[in-house]
Every structure is written in structure tokens, then in C-alpha cells.
Specification:
The chain is α/β, with parallel strands linked by helices. 32% of the residues lie in helices and 12% in strands.
Length: 192
């Protein structure tokens, strides 16, 4: 049985990295002996977005396929599917919500998911953690994050593109003033 873990820099710096694995939840799961019956492929990469065809913004986003980086979930979809996973998890949204609207981000999921579903792959979308209140973009990002999480949490909305929702980004430690400074990196106020 195969599983793919996708995401951005909250999940992995580079796909299947060999070093610094203890810094990421994805490798803690992949390397846990309790999960030995599942072959886990961590394919996430820093700065990854969902991607897709052009959507109205704000701001207007161009097509991602053939983009200068090729670092979108859409660009990597074929590679991920080649592993033949039964389940793919994807913790994405931080980079999308930092620039694009929630509606834009949801439209990208609606564009992305049908190909996976047609191949019989279950998709679990995972909310990213919120920005720390000291982050310069917190006032812009936080309302988008709250809206995004509310939509992912709603089974009627989520069912259109995902089979499961992983509330990892909603962990209370990320929002509690007594614990967030020890869970969210105070160097950049984004990463765990």
C-alpha cells in the first residue's frame, strides 16, 4: 500500500529529503515503525502551491503548468500518481492564501481533484497552520485562513474535491498565546 504526502515547506524542504527529517510531521509519520505496512512517499517541496489554469484573483493568476518553477501540485500530479497511492494528503494553502483569495484557492482544488478521484486515489486536504500574530501579513492572511478552514471543515463544501479533512493546522497550540511562540517559528512567524 502506498501513500503520498504533499505540501509546502511546512511538510518538507525537498521531496524525499534525507536530512533534517525530524523537523517535519510528514517524516515523523513516514518513519514511524507503526506505519511499516504503508510505503509513504513525502513529495512536498518548499513554496509549493496548488496551481492550475488561470483564475480571476485577486490578483489574476497565470497558468502554472510550464511555470518557471514547475513547483505546483498540478505540475507534480502525474509524478505523485505514478506511485500508485491509495491516499494522498496535501497540507497546502499558506502560499496560495498569502497571495490569492480563498475562492481562488478553492477553485484550484476543484480543478485539481477530479484526476485523482478518477484514478481511485483518496484525497485528504490538511489546513496549514495560521501565521503568528507578529507576522507582517497576519492582518491580511488571518481572515483568509479562517475562511479557508471554515470551508474545509464543511463536509458539503469539502466533498466536492476531497474525501477527508485533516485539521492539523487548527491545533490549539498555534493560536494559544501561551504556546504559539514555542510551536510557530519566531524567526519567520510562519513555519513550525
Amino acid at each position: 500500500t502506498h501513500m503520498v504526502i504533499e505540501g509546502d515547506s511546512q511538510t518538507s524542504t525537498t521531496p524525499d529529503q534525507a536530512t533534517n527529517r525530524d523537523a517535519f510531521y510528514s517524516y515523523a509519520y513516514a518513519d514511524d515503525p507503526a506505519n511499516a505496512a504503508v510505503t509513504v512517499h513525502v513529495r512536498a517541496q518548499a513554496s509549493r502551491t496548488i496551481g492550475g489554469p488561470a483564475f480571476a484573483g485577486p490578483p489574476v493568476e497565470g497558468p502554472d503548468v510550464g511555470s518557471p518553477t514547475g513547483n505546483t501540485l498540478v505540475d507534480r500530479r502525474g509524478d505523485d500518481m505514478a506511485y500508485g497511492p491509495r491516499l494522498m494528503t496535501a497540507m497546502l494553502g499558506s502560499n496560495d492564501l498569502a497571495t490569492f483569495s480563498v475562492a481562488n484557492t478553492m477553485a484550484k482544488w476543484l480543478n485539481y481533484a477530479p484526476t485523482l478521484r478518477a484514478a481511485g486515489i483518496k484525497l485528504a486536504v490538511v489546513a496549514p497552520p495560521p501565521y503568528h500574530p507578529a507576522h507582517a501579513a497576519y492582518a491580511t492572511f488571518n481572515p483568509r485562513w479562517l475562511d479557508y478552514v471554515a470551508r474545509l471543515r464543511d463536509p458539503a463544501v469539502r466533498a466536492a474535491f476531497a474525501d477527508y479533512y485533516g485539521p492539523l493546522g487548527e491545533h490549539p497550540d498555534f493560536r494559544d498565546p501561551a504556546t504559539r511562540d514555542t510551536t510557530i517559528n519566531t524567526g519567520d512567524f510562519i513555519h513550525l
